Every structure is written in structure tokens, then in C-alpha cells.
Amino acid sequence: MTTKHILLNAFNMNCVGHINHGHWTHPRDTSDQYHTLRYWTELAQLLERGLFDGLFIADIVGVYDVYQGGVDVTLRESVQLPVNDPVPLVSAMAAVTRHLGFGLTANLTYQAPYLFARTLSTLDHLSEGRVGWNIVTGYLDSAARAMGLDEQIAHDERYDRADEYLEVLYKLWEGSWEDGAVRRDRQARVYADPSKVHKIRHAGRHYRVEGYHLSEPSPQRTPVLYQAGSSGRGQRFAARHAECVFISPPNKEVGRKIVRDLREQIAQAGRHPDDVKIFMGAAVVVAPTQAEARDKHAEYLGHAAPEAGLAHFSASTGIDYGRYGLDDPVGYGPTNAIESATRVAREHNWTRRDLLAQFSLGGRYPAIVGDPATVADALQDWVRDTGVDGFNLSRIVTPESYADFIDLVVPVLQDRGVYKTAYEAGTLRQKLFGQGDRLPARHEGAHHRPLARPA
Ligand SMILES: Cc1cc2nc3c(=O)[nH]c(=O)nc-3n(C[C@H](O)[C@H](O)[C@H](O)COP(=O)(O)O)c2cc1C
């Protein structure tokens, strides 16, 4: 029997403070160089040395202005502000790597599907099939106002629109150009065969699109689809579309439940429960010995900004924790932000003090601290106890967090046979699932292929 390999993504964002806030003040941290190309190309090469499956790049439209009703903490601590566009990073990183995958976050609410389809096809061409898209619909009123709306579209309605958006994209990516449409026949003077390139016609509730996909088919056509919503509606969306799902459970019990519910829904949607890889967020502090790891953790705690973590969480939940005393009960009403984050906070009745304690390292992910064997044990325990397939490793001090992990933890995981020792060939989808470059036939997107359509 072969042991299942743990999957690994590095979790990052084109900004200074991503998940673990405050560490930009650490003398060895380089995150304030995020606006240089070198920061990203060196990071991509480092991750490829560690055989990471992917670099997952978060993104946000809008600012975190819920905490204390403004952006003071957000700006002082650089809590995902300033934030640059992640799209241009991918081609630069693809140019200096051969295998690393890229999970790009893009919010569909504020961009037309026709143009966005081309952006992703272009990146899939340039990276030779290493692109994934993290489908997000936004959770910030500040974004809605910046983009000309009075307030956000309601939570479930955002997913309804996303369903239709995906339908348009599948038609463009899977349906517009048949296999064999591109002939590149110099002698016959035929670049593309007109009989095999089709205009798509979509007239739905939210989108109307009539046209040919601008890009010729890229290696994966549809990029690997990632998603991160854990509400009921979010899980239904994931079950229908996602190939990779990100979760951030505060403990194993919650993690186990999310994984079980999700796999059930995937099966109900007519897919195989293993058609989706589930990644959870984790922060790791590792050093050669337990004592050194504890010292490093203590050193990191000295730079962390728990209040910045709280400002981030306020925006995620739509609740201004700045209005509450440390031990006041928090009024957890309905939210239009991240429903799953708010639900967990409400179920535990977390106060401001509870949250600040949880965010001692500046962020909300479970921190795993120890020597390499202890960290490897903890990761394997999470996989065994919750059923996740892998981890989204957040940075604490960058690039040190990733380098430590690669130098110290990866060899232990490899010795135990739970981590690859070389990359497989092929596209990101082929590497993750081993079943080819394209969406499997049972995925909804495949139903939009020309031959799958009724005549
Ligand atoms: C681990 C994780 C990462 C996420 N990353 C982003 C992101 O980069 N950008 C974004 O706009 N939303 C992000 N989200 C928010 C989700 O896309 C989604 O909007 C949110 O989870 C609300 O879904 P829900 O109410 O169904 O849980 C993330 C959520 C999770 C759990």
C-alpha cells in the first residue's frame, strides 16, 4: 500500500501583513519588499526547492475598516493594506520555476467574466498549465462602496452569481475552441480551423455574453479551481465547482466536521469525495531542538501584533470588536461577511480577550511549535484526525518560516514516506490528481465541451 502524500501550499499575499500580523517589524523579515520582483522570484525558487505543490496567493478588494470604524490599525500595522495585484506575479515566478503551482485569488464580483477568462488562460499558457484560481466573491462593504455599490450583495446571492459566472467561464474555456481547432498549418495557411471555433451564447440572470473565447486552449483549459467558503451555501458551491478547498478550523473537532460535511456534499453532487483536495491553514515555528523552537516562538511573540489580528478578524466577521471591553459579551448577530468565521466565534461566545489570546502570533491559524519530529507528528495527526489532504502554510517571519520548514520538516516527512521526494511531470491538475490535465468528465465544467452538448 502506498502512503498518501501530504500536500503543501505556501500561503502568501502581495502585501506586507498577511495572516500573522506584526512580524514585518522583525529584523529578519523581508515582507516589506513585497513590491519587488526579486522578492517573488526568490520565494518561488525556495518553494520549488522544498517541492511545494503550490504558492497560494490571497487577495482582497477593499480595506479592513470595521475595527474601530476606520483604517488606523490597518495602516499602522499594514494589515493587507497596501496590497498589490497578484496577477502580474505569476508569469515572473513561472519563468524561474518548472513545477510550482500558483493558486491565484481573484474576486469575480467586480470583473467581467469574458475578460477574466482570458487573463487566466494567458497565465495558464505562460506557466505551461500551472495555474489555479481561488474563486472569491468578497466579504467587504468597503469593496462594494469602492466599486460603486451602496453595500455588498447579500451572502447567498453572491454564490448564486458565482454559479452563473462559472457557467460562463466553462462555456468559454471548455466550449468555445474544440480540441484540434488550432492547426498552425503553414503550408495550408490555416492557423485555426473556423469550423471548430464556436461562439458562446449566454443570457442569464446576471450575465450576458456572446462571443468567442479570445485565447486558444491552454494546457488545462479550466485552471484548477480553489474555493474557501465553509457556510452551508459556500459548501454547496464548493461541492459543485471546487477541486481544492481551503479551510481554517480553530480545532480538530471543527475541522473534522467541515471535512465530513464537504465530502458528503461532493458525493451528493455526483462527484467522487476524493475529487476535492482539502487544505487547512497552519503556522509552523520549527527549530532543530524543542528548546530552540520555544525560544524562536518567544522571539516571534515579541514582534506579533494581536490587535492587528483582531482588526483583520473584525473585517472577516463584520463585527467591530473595538466597541467591546475585553470581557464584554459580544453581540453576535447575523452577518453579511464570512459566515463560517462568525458562526464559530458565536458558537464559542469569544470575547475580545479570548480572540487577542488566540491571535498571540498575530493571526488565527493554529500554531505548531517544536523540533522537526514534533512538527511532523502534529501535521500527521491533523491529517489523520480531520481528513484534510494538506496544509496552507502561512508565513510568520518571511522567508524564514518557509526556509525553516523546507530545511527541517520536509526531510522528516520524506523519511516517513508522507511527502514526495521529486515532482511528477505535468500540469498542476495532473500533479494533484494524476488523472490528466483537464477537468474530469464528471465535473460540471466538462459538460460544456462541444461534444458533451446535445446537438
Ligand atoms: C482559508 C481562507 C482563505 C480565504 N482567502 C480569501 C482571499 O484571499 N480573498 C477573499 O476575498 N476571500 C477569502 N476568503 C473568504 C472566502 O472566499 C469566502 O468569501 C468566505 O469564506 C465566506 O464564505 P462563507 O461565508 O461561505 O464561509 C478566504 C476564506 C478562508 C476560509
From TrEMBL:
It holds the Pfam family Bac_luciferase. Residues 29-389 form the Luciferase-like domain. SUPFAM superfamilies: Bacterial luciferase-like (SSF51679). InterPro entries: Diverse_substr_monoxygenases, Luciferase-like_dom, Luciferase-like_sf, NTA_MOA. The keyword Flavoprotein applies. The keyword Nucleotide-binding does not apply. Keywords: Flavoprotein, FMN, Monooxygenase, Oxidoreductase. FMN binds at D59, T105, H155, Y159, S230, S231. GO terms for molecular function: monooxygenase activity; oxidoreductase activity, acting on paired donors, with incorporation or reduction of molecular oxygen. PANTHER family: ALKANESULFONATE MONOOXYGENASE-RELATED, C2H2 FINGER DOMAIN TRANSCRIPTION FACTOR (EUROFUNG)-RELATED. Belongs to the NtaA/SnaA/DszA monooxygenase family. This is Coenzyme F420-dependent N5,N10-methylene tetrahydromethanopterin reductase and related flavin-dependent oxidoreductases. It comes from Orrella dioscoreae.
